[in-house]
Amino acid sequence: MTEPVMKLKNVKKTIGKKEIIKGLNFDIYGGEVFGFLGPNGAGKTTTIRMMVGLMNMSAGDVLIKGRSINKEFKEAIRHVGGIVENPEMYPFMSGWKNLVHYARMMPDITEERIIQVVRLVGLENRIKEKVGKYSLGMRQRLGIAQALLHNPSVLILDEPTNGLDPSGIREIRAYIRELAEEEGVAVIVSSHILSEMEMMCDRIGIIKNGELIAIQSVTDALQQTDEKEVSIEAAPVDEAKAALQELTGRNVQLNGNVLTFTIEKEMIPKVVTDLVHKQIQIYGVHANRSTLEDKFLDLIGEGVIE
Amino acid sequence: MSNFFQLIRNEHMKLYSQKATWIMAAILVVLVIGMGGLFKIDEAITGGEVPTGDNWKEELQQQNEQLMSQEGQAQEVAYPGYTNVEENQYRIENDLPPTEYNAWDFVRDNRGFVALVSLFTIIVAAGITANEFRWGTIKLLLIRPISRTKILLAKYVSVVIYALTMLVLLYVLSFIIGVIFFGMDSFSQTYVYNQAGEIKDAGIFAFTVSQYMLSFVELIMMATFAFMIASVFRNTSLAIGLAIFLMMAGSSIVLFFMNKEWAKYILFANTDLTQFMEGTPMVADLTLGFSITVIAVYYLVFLLLSWFFFTKSDVAGS
Ligand SMILES: Nc1ncnc2c1ncn2[C@@H]1O[C@H](COP(=O)(O)OP(=O)(O)O)[C@@H](O)[C@H]1O
Ligand SMILES: [Mg+2]
């Protein structure tokens, strides 16, 4: 296997008497999107702060391209770009000046490169405006632009979809996938929302109370789990049940007038159409969580992800 | 080294992109012009009959006799104060005719505005690190291939440059406004003053420049103090508040403890180096060398504390 771009070795953090991070070990490879999933307060941001040297570790080390963030900070950090928590920029300066500011802090970043990243995140038309006037989505994009200036090998984004609308989230997802697949960047994305993680990550590490409790490859999980549990509220319920059993060839459970069964996701529209053709009244269709979600929730305990 | 220069450029870009910086400069300009106008209108401030004619020596002599006859009474201090017997005597003996109130006197008077420059520099010094924490931008600032020491140093140097800029602005502006309102005698005008009971004279340009430079010491000490508090506590208001409080209360603190053995080790007993140039030191047995040593020790402690907290502490959540 190739060398990991980033390696966490028994990373611990104790603040006061409280052990917030309890010995994290994992590797992240070039070209993959690694999801760092956990409920609020699990320790995602704290871990990220240690990865980029904003916080000292109580024990352990983080190696970036083999360089220790503790002992060789400059050599290690030059391969990292990131946003920690909110994309906070200088509100009284234009987006352009903000980028120039960070460009000056890194070697050999030309004006052409700044223009290039501005285009990449689609801010050409607004880049001369003050950041104070930007929407959260635009600041998020400027944050990504800033993180990409120096062509980092590792891109760390802490909750990049926070406060974004669905189209903003789709855009971010597209950038991230492109960076990983086309530029071979190792991308680390943290979130407390599983459904987002499933869509953009290759692997997901689940953190709870400062401990990594599982690492799951999303593609594997999805292959096993393109089945969904579906509930349909219909009348007359007995006719509906019989029809469903016939259509799916599966066991259908009846609960009040709600029928529950498992089926491949792609089949859901067909089943609904068939029921309608049979003159069955449908009051509601609900696709419950996938088995991947079941698995995560089992691991971290029901209801912890909010 | 080249990236140090880039860091300084960044700090300047941020500083001068903020409205507050320009408002502070505007306040200084307006006050200096206003002061000039006030002095121009109110002759009582700049008035006082100045004997400038051919027989100025006799006139000064007369004034001295008059002054000596009222010995013991409280003397009214009139500007420019040819009311000092020894100084008048010195002028007569050294053939140094008095001059009317002019641009140089205005420059000399406006040294009072250094307090305002101090205030502005304290605000800048307190904000330059603590604001990055307040804005949250510190996180993006510190994840660059540059050591925290270098970033902090660039910030400190930028504060010093700011202070110098404002001081030069004050001096040059005072001179220009002074020339416009009061005219100028000559560049080589001689200034007569009393230093710890001894009468001396000096070229007015050299004298005012060195006075401004000496005030700069006090200014930089307070700014460095604010910079230190801001680096340690990461709180702009706390740093501004404490530094301004100490700046205002400094001499009262010294007066309060004046009789104590250790009073001379209080920073504020030493920061006003002009006391060695004109007038008498606040606390007895102070010497210039001693004061410089005390100031240097405080200065190093301030810088060391700033450095230690800025480079060693976690940048944790707000
Ligand atoms: N500076 C701090 N001092 C004490 N506890 C902290 C500090 N920062 C974070 N914590 C605690 O550490 C835990 C993890 O926080 P954080 O890393 O922000 O979680 P996440 O990003 O996963 O939501 C939380 O329980 C939080 O209360
Ligand atoms: Mg967080």
From TrEMBL, chain A:
Please give the Gene Ontology molecular function terms for this protein.
ATP binding; ATP hydrolysis activity
Indicate whether DNA-binding appears among the record's keywords.
no
Q: Keyword Nucleotide-binding: yes or no? A: yes
Q: Which InterPro entries match?
A: AAA+_ATPase, ABC_transporter-like_ATP-bd, ABC_transporter-like_CS, P-loop_NTPase
| SUPFAM superfamilies the UniProt entry points to | P-loop containing nucleoside triphosphate hydrolases (SSF52540)
Q: Name one Pfam family in it.
A: ABC_tran
**Alphabetically ordered keywords of this record:** ATP-binding, Nucleotide-binding, Transport
What are the ABC transporter domain coordinates in residue numbering? 6-234
**Coiled-coil segments:** none
Sequence similarity: Belongs to the ABC transporter superfamily.
Its recorded name reads: ABC transporter ATP-binding protein YxlF
Q: Which gene encodes it?
A: yxlF
From TrEMBL, chain B:
Source domain of life is Bacteria
Q: Where are the transmembrane segments?
A: 20-39, 113-135, 156-184, 204-230, 237-258, 286-310
- One GO CC annotation, please? plasma membrane
* Keyword Zinc-finger recorded: no
User: Molecular function (GO) terms listed?
Assistant: ABC-type transporter activity
Record keywords:
Membrane, Transmembrane, Transmembrane helix
Decide whether keyword Transmembrane is in the record: yes
Q: Name one Pfam family in it.
A: ABC2_membrane_2
Q: What protein is this chain from? A: ABC-type transport system involved in multi-copper enzyme maturation, permease component
